[in-house]
Amino acid sequence: MATRSPRPGLTSFEQALPHLDHLARFARWLTRDEATADDLVQETYLKALRAWDTFTPGSDCRAWLLTICRNQHRSSLRRERRVESLDSPDLEALAAARVFQAAQAAGVDAAFGRFDVQDAVRRELLAVPEGYREVVALVDLEGLSYEEAAKLLDLPVGTVRSRLFRGRRLLQEGLLAHAEDARFTTPRRGPARTMRRE
Amino acid sequence: MRQLADCDDVLRQLWDFLDGAVTSADRELIEAHLRRCGDCLPTYEMAGEFLASLRAAMRAPGQRTELRERVLAMVRQADADRKASG
């Protein structure tokens, strides 16, 4: 006897609920405001429930929800946000390396290992423009690969890399300015450390 | 085999390397360079610490109990509405 697949209902949709914390953190970094982020998460789940029939069982539910969340956020803004054209990702990486080298020369290179830099990281990241910040959130918070983030954002991988590296450099420069102001310094470095293999 | 000519070549791949997005061949070339270069190694190490700090700071502590309850209530209501409407 042929059987029909049951219409997707609450029980199967509940598999989307474990991703709530991921969505909440992502929404927080998108909106920069906790109350707005909570609203966005609710809207995302409501939209997802209504579109649950379109979800392919066994596919990446977290990525599906993150896509809905991001698209819902952009719809609520009701405008197309243009991100300024970027240098190549390779040049961004080289620029980041130069900033680290300058930090080492200034003696603030231990700043990132200090626990009290966490608040500064969060503050500085909220100041990074959204087009870069959302990519940082997808890769550095959610652990997506460049290709996964590119698919979610419907962007070329090269653009994702550019935005990610630029976002990181903006954050890096903000943090180092903070570290210099707070006088995070280390003693002069001794001999090279243990990554070398003899 | 492709050669990484100089420090700039290695530094251009800083983020790709730390994100695990380089080929295994390039990883070996970069690691070989870092073993012998006293300038690039500290830069790579500092960048690694930066990423660790960034990722730790982005993870908000604890679960959002109140938000979870709101979302569950909303989902259950929406499902009940859907069933009631046939």
Explained architecture:
The complex is a heterodimer of chains A (198) and B (86). With 198 residues, chain A is mostly helical. Chain A has nine helices and no strands. Chain A has helices at residues 10-13, 20-31, 34-50, 61-77, 89-106, 118-127, 130-141, 146-153, 157-181. Chain B has five helices and no strands. The chains are: A mainly alpha (198), B mainly alpha (86).
Shape descriptor of chain A: elongated
Largest sheet of chain A: none
Helical fraction of chain B equals over 70%
Give the helix/strand class of chain B: mainly alpha
Order of helices and strands of chain B: HHHHH
Tell me the distance between the termini of chain A. 70 Å
Q: How large is the radius of gyration of chain B?
A: 24 Å
**Oligomer description:** heterodimer
Number of DSSP helical runs of chain A: 9
* SS-derived structural category of chain A: mainly alpha
Name the poorly predicted regions of chain B.
none
Number of helices of chain B: 5
* Secondary structure: number of strands of chain B: 0
Q: What distinguishing features does this structure have?
A:
heterodimer, A: 198 residues, mainly alpha, 0% strand, B: 86 residues
